[in-house]
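Researcher: Let's try something more involved. This one mixes different molecule types, so please make sure each is placed in the same coordinate frame as the others.
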Amino acid sequence: MCDFPFFSLVCTGEIFELKAELNSDKKEKKKEAVKKVIASMTVGKDVSALFPDVVNCMQTDNLELKKLVYLYLMNYAKSQPDMAIMAVNTFVKDCEDPNPLIRALAVRTMGCIRVDKITEYLCEPLRKCLKDEDPYVRKTAAVCVAKLHDINAQLVEDQGFLDTLKDLISDSNPMVVANAVAALSEIAESHPNSNLLDLNPQTINKLLTALNECTEWGQIFILDCLANYTPRDDRESQSICERVTPRLSHANSAVVLSAVKVLMKFMEMLPKDLDYYGTLLKKLAPPLVTLLSAEPELQYVALRNINLIVQRRPEILKHEMKVFFVKYNDPIYVKLEKLDIMIRLASQANIAQVLAELKEYATEVDVDFVRKAVRAIGRCAIKVEQSAERCVSTLLDLIQTKVNYVVQEAIVVIKDIFRKYPNKYESVIATLCENLDSLDEPEARAAMIWIVGEYAERIDNADELLESFLEGFHDESTQVQLQLLTAIVKLFLKKPTETQELVQQVLSLATQDSDNPDLRDRGYIYWRLLSTDPVAAKEVVLAEKPLISEETDLIEPTLLEELICHIGTLASVYHKPPSAFVEGSRGVQHKRLPGSAGSGESADSPDTGSAAGVSEAPPAVIPSQGDLLGDLLNLDLTPPTTSGPPPAPSSGMQMGAMDLLGGGLDSLVGLLHAAMGAGFGAPPTAMPASFPPPVSGGLDDLFDLGGSVGMPMGAYSPPKSIWLPAMKAKGLEISGTFARRAGVIQMEMTLTNKAMSIMTDFAIQFNRNSFGLAPAGPLQVLTPVGPNQSIEVALPLSTVGPVMKMEPLTNLQVAVKNNIDVFYFSSQYPISMLFVEDGKMERQVFLATWKDIPNDNEAQFQIKDCHLNSDAASSKLQGSNVFTIAKRTVEGQDMLYQSMKLTNGIWVLAELRVQAGNPNYTVMSRLVFVLTCSGANHKDYKTESREV
Amino acid sequence: MSASAIFVLDLKGKVLICRNYKGDVDMAEIDHFMPLLMQHEEEGLLCPVLSHGSVHFMWIKHSNLYLVATTNKNSNASLVYSFLYKLVEVFTEYFKELEEESIQDNFVVVYELLDELMDFGFPQTTDSKILQEYITQEGAKLEVAKSKVPTTVTNAVSWRSEGIKYKKNEVFIDVIESINVLVNANGSVMSSDIVGSIKLKTMLSGMPELRLGLNDRVLFALTGRDKGKTVTMEDVKFHQCVRLSRFESDRTISFIPPDGESELMSYRINTHVKPLIWIESIIEKFSHSRVEIMVKAKGQFKKQSVANNVEVRVPVPSDADSPKFKTSTGNAKYVPEKNMVVWTIKSFPGGKEFLMRAHFGLPSVENDELEGKPPITVKFEIPYFTVSGIQVRYMKIIEKSGYQALPWVRYITQSGDYQLRTNV
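Model: All components are placed in one shared frame. Result:
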């Protein structure tokens, strides 16, 4: 019939038949029957009904039969826990069998039966097996500890198995050592605070010795474990590196990558002027290149990792461009990754070759690959200035092919080239315009419109071109609509006489017929600007734009550091931290490169870093996406292909935005108001009647009115709480709070030494955060803190540090260093700390602004149990820089209109309703972000209004 | 750390066999694999890692099978892929061919192997020669003596068993160099390198200690000797039997070899090599009527050497018809299923030049599907010769019984990834 008779059973009668065979006296028949059962199990049939009969076959001296029964047990024990007990005796007996193969088999299988009742019986046999004379049994038992820990961690700890496991690291057999390391790492990973892998120079030495002798897989376990160790100094670091480098010659790619991980990490600690540092760099390139001859999946993993390595240490592969050239038969995922690395390695030295290759790729047939190749040409132009001209002409050649998606992609990148090199390549505009009709993708249309608007004065028929887009205005995507609006305004400012009608048309389309708030807002701004002060309008709209930067797709430095620590793993493939895709790992501390407490390059002298050295800020990435100024000036076209997270807006840019508007916010708001009076448009005058559903808010904090008598008038400051418990920080306890005192934000801390030794050399540093908080000076701890001593410190903060959006918004990640170690903790500051003293808005301005904020930016919530009248509340809030602008009483309800301004220039307006006798206040807050129309920022501020 | 479970699926995504190692991922998750794969394939975004919710699939394809590992942790991806390929290797050595049927026919052994190869997601013993000593296919004949763990499994020398005996002690060394070349359409060499491999067929008794001497430039520089031609190896990879730290310190290649056939080492040399067989091609495509192909092949190697079994594969449009050929030597054949002409030359002496012309008709209706631009590829083999000039200087064999053993060396140069881009 068929080659495989076991797969032919179907009917239920067979179960009966099998039962009989299983209970047969003949060994052979029994075994054939068990085989049939396993075959049925393999094809997914339920043969659990045979449980007792199969278990009965377990007592046999036939190894193969035993294995089959064990296999059956592993599959069905969970569904029949009571019956599984039946098997325990045999297991225990097998664990003492004279044949080590059977002993190991028994202990291995027992660990796979995830039934609580069985685990209890497993302990004794496991204890024996861990001390077995045969290494094969010991190595199996070592893994079994990890299995048992997964089922019942407490049991493993109570039974002292962890200590036995640690002892196995000193075992004479390398396989046993490797499995013990693997088991310990596994347990440590799921229990990050267990401090299990207490690595010290002695254990490291043992591991390094075992590394030379164990199997390829064992080498990977050991290398991955080594990567978690932080050497004490550069000398230790170097000696470990020296002993790890031979692994780079291993035939197994995984061994090589794990070795690369250890080297990349420990290299951070080596002084750059050390000869060995240079030697190591040179040693890394060849094995990385060889990884590209591995199987395609391994190539892919290697390429994703090389992408990280190139960003962290570009010097390693800078001469290896050629190996990343794409082969015709590479799988698409390899092609795309190679392309990415080619761009990263592109430099003046190799650009000619790279361009020739990219041009070749752009004529391939795979659409995704071709698109990426075209984009790559654009990125080369932006990255290597000398090549820009050649890139542009290559792109023009490609446009001539008339292949639709090539043309569109080319136009998108040419727009970026214009932004990088303004007034240089405008001669090509004519060619671009010829292809106007074939553009059907929003990004390409938006890019083309931007070009037409930007260079309207040089394009004779710019008005006709733009008008042609206007016909289907409402069918366009938002991106195109916004772009069209701006382009026409630019055109109008450049050629006011003939385009008045056009601009009227687009403004009314944007403001009256659209329900997109971004579009409406931008429409109104332009409308009012144009109607009040065309000169100002010109200054704003036609202002000189900042150049775009080339490396918009770089991975954010702290993330990059973390990913380098995860070389070879899924995290390095996804370019995401493990916490982003592994459930239950949120509490796990992010891995960092040694010696770098958050900042990029303070790596050289981790132990001697002074306070000043530590507070050195990482270089801010100037973003070209999502920044405020750029947005207003309409640069919000997506930058050249981004992978990786969008860079954070830097506060410098925000300041710039305000300066540029001359006089900052007030004048702009005034401008808006004036515009309203001028009646150019028809702004809404009625108060919105419907409120969004109430959101719970945190203003309670601010009020904190329960027994408020003791608190003097002044900014609210929450009581100190423990940020860093002594247990986590080798005896250093930090409790603290934030306060705003005399216009200065302060971080007030109590440092308590609960350790036995003196603590000195304190320094502090912040991670980037939402509002750019940074220490304004070093941490002033002048005297050493003795055991059981506490010291109070107040650290003044500035808000000019690098900005990165945090979750939650007011989260602050802090690193504190002392003579013992570096510790990390995070805390949340009350947002009220960020309310500045000049947050009182002019009455008129307030009124105008209030009305003008779209409902989208509104949040409403209630404050419960607040027994103050409106006046008391008002004066209390004033202490925290929440200013009452106006008050009115409607039907016994006091309505307080309040304003506050955040350090980053964002205004928050609020309406506070107080019903006499009702302890619950209603707050409706609205955000002004005249400065920030971008959709990306939108969301952030909504979240923030909830915080307020 | 690595895999939670391993699955072997058929082309439709049906599970043929699986093994759950950790129990932290629902085994039913595998049902999402095939739809996910198809979806990615349709979007042209095929990727070796797929994820569904918190479950990640790492997969490879071998003949008509998918081998899939699942995990919900931040696993070591390179380890998982290496392991999956190792799995293929072990199964292939056990069953000759790894395919759907061999899995079904041998499910008992497959289960046994899966149990032995990996434990709780940690790869264990994966050396198939050693595995074959205690996991046999004729399970029925398993005797008590056989069912002992070979000490080899946990020995530091985990790749060679004790007590091997040969009447005649010999070792055969094959030095094989593959040339990878990428030539641009305008005839300039974009990249070229040599990937060499030294393979052993060891037929030696006992536990011999071997030392291989090559004309390695670094070694010669270290020892101060400088006789004759030396070779700079860019990167070297060794079988796990080679003592890596020894090589690192004094470039000595010392090892106890696995029995039988094995790849001792591979190396990569970056030097710019002259493409040994140079191809010039003129491909003229006259839309709606015909394609004319002229290919000139030139042997750019020593006159004494001969390249064997040369195959020049020239791509033609998929809608081409009525082929006509003319060759100065060898013969040309149209392979429509691969859209190419294969020009075979059995023996191609160095310095010679041959010509092939081909003529195809094209339909008058234009094929509106865009076609890629596959390159011309060349296959060949040149015996008794290495491009790099690498030489085995000596192979010292020391065994405590003191027998005399003979090493035999053979050199071959062959084509690797040998691509020449065309203009059409």
